[in-house]
Write a structure and sequence with these properties.
Elements: E1 10-13, E2 19-22, E3 34-38, E4 44-48
Length: about 70
């Protein structure tokens, strides 16, 4: 039985024919549209700033997010 830290990075489909290497935290942490929000209790949330102008994007998407049409580095 392998531990979660031993797993290789997952791959997520990209808009084109290539794939993106996705770490265990998904696409949100490296995205240019993310705003990291920390609660008083120490929890971390990823706010998608695209949700402000496009209702198709959830404000706080479920994690890890492996596919996102708004992802940009």
């Amino acid at each position: 039985m392998s531990r979660a830290g031993d797993e290789p990075p997952r791959r997520a489909p990209d808009e084109g024919s290539r794939t993106l290497r996705v770490g265990p935290d998904g696409l949100c942490p490296p995205c240019r549209h993310v705003q990291v929000v920390r609660s008083e209790r120490g929890s971390t949330f990823h706010l998608c700033r695209l949700s402000r102008s496009d209702p198709a994007f959830p404000r706080y998407p479920p994690q890890p997010r492996l596919v996102c049409r708004g992802f940009e580095r």
